[in-house]
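Cross-check.
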Amino acid sequence: MIPSPFHGIFSSSVRSDASGDAAALPSDSVHQTLAQPKKTLPGSRQSGMGQVALDIFEYEDYYILKAPIAGVRLADLDIEVNDNILTIRGNRRQNDAVPDEQYYLKECFWGEFQRSVTLPCSIDSRKVKATFNKDSILKIFVPKTEDKVKITRISE
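Predicted model, tokenized:
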């Protein structure tokens, strides 16, 4: 696998327990019978802010962030750049008025979501471009920049 410039800057899918030992987070896939309606799944996120899944890769002179965001309009998205941190915010609205007691399974997150990514370079917000296609795939193009290092020679 190619060494990544993003190594160590994303949250891990591993958590520490009280003893400090690493343990895998519980899987979101839960087998459930349809005998009785269930409002939530163990470990599911029902309140608070949701999160967006991202793919990040390099192509030519860009870092490209790709996020499938179904159920969201472009007008419901906000992309913010602060130093080397890029944040995607949005709101996924549910148009159906289905009472909670009618659900057998409720895994989709509806409401506000946010995802911040620390990139390994400074970001010029004027050069960042984004597209949002008809398949609800958000692509953000961040030009790679060489952070200038100031070298000072010290002489005796």
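The chain has no helices and nine strands. The two ends are 46 Å apart (CA to CA). Passed to J.P. for a second look.
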